[in-house]
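tool=predict chain=A
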Amino acid sequence: MTSSLPEPAVRTRASTREIFGWAMFDFANSSYTTVIITVVFSVIFPKIIVGDAPTYRQGNLFWSVALSVSYGLVVLTAPWLGALMDFRAAKKRFLLASCLVTVAATAALYWATPGRVGLAMILLIVSNYGFAVGESFAAAFLPDLGPKEALGRISGYAWGLGYLGGLVSTALVVFTVGPQEPDNLAQLRWVGPMTAVFFLLAALPTFAFLKERGTPQALPAGESLARLGFARLRTTIRELHAFEDLVWFFGGLFFATAGLSIVISFAFIYGDQVVRWQPRSQLLMFVLTNLSAAGGAVLFGALQDRWGNLKTYRLTLLIWGLAVVGIHQTKTLAAIIGKAVGGAWAAEDVYLLVGTLAGLCLGATQSAGRTVVAVFAPASRSGELFGLWGVCGKLASIVGLLSLGLLQSALGLERAILVCGGFFFAAWLLSLKVDERRGMATARRHEGA
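tool=predict ok
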């Protein structure tokens, strides 16, 4: 990474078909994160599989632990896999493998029935591991899809399409299997298999249209692929000091992702256990947040290309801070609004409004973060650096989920949710240390090394 080979001034934009193929993986894998992690299985697990009503504190804790273990496995393996992927020019094969792992383990959730907590946790760990490393593998293609000044729009388009995928897949599941209640277990068992089939079919355009760039390198005599991967990774880590802006950005992204992991994993649990919403409000929250997230990802993606990736990212963090306060004060806000308009406002109605506001930044924060890494990463090392991006995100998810899991066990979910606000504020502060132009110039200096 010490070479000073210049990066081409303008990278050719990939074909519309290839960009669509890449974006379709966001469409496909959103079925997993939306149905399994956020909306449906996240409620089934504590409520039916663990079933420790009325507090669900043990179920919530087991949920946090399972997700944290899967992210820990990503931390241990993703950068090494990224180094191998770059060396072998095998991004597509690695992405396919991660997809198949996720699909198989998700389908097997059919056998996760009440009392089989250990089996459910193992399948959740395996499926979420495949999903999480797949995110890094897919993101590593982004620097190849166009000039750096166009990557914000491309990433935002894909993330927006992803939320539409989450909306479609979850609608299919929810309307097919019915309410998340113990007496509906026979239907609820199909949540995993239905999600797996959707993921697999929706990802087919990705593997049909996405191109594998780069040239596979020959393995030196007497060297094993595993050792070589670790050697490349050690070199990258040693020389990270040269990527000052990327390192600072990873630091801030750590806290942003910690906050997002809580929102994604506990938003519907919070609505069920704290707000005590009705099924109608749960459905509306799902529809409104996915639509606002899709629109926000596209709109903020266009803003990135005009205003700058980093400025856009910072703006989303400030909006998140306001949203967390609104979530915590949902009941108080409902009373205030009711007095102001002269009518009764339910807490779940305010929660819907705040959720829609937060949804605008749900995809935008993640898409903007992915784009910043893409413009700071030399294309020849994108697999490794996006592997570190994955490590940063998953370590953050571990910290975020365990922080909330332990805090809610001691203080209750309503008060524990405030930890999100602290995470987003810390992310904003650290982002002030990052200079986007300097980071892009560093990537150009190290291209081809």
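Confidence is low (pLDDT under 50) at residues 1-10. The chain has 19 helices and no strands.
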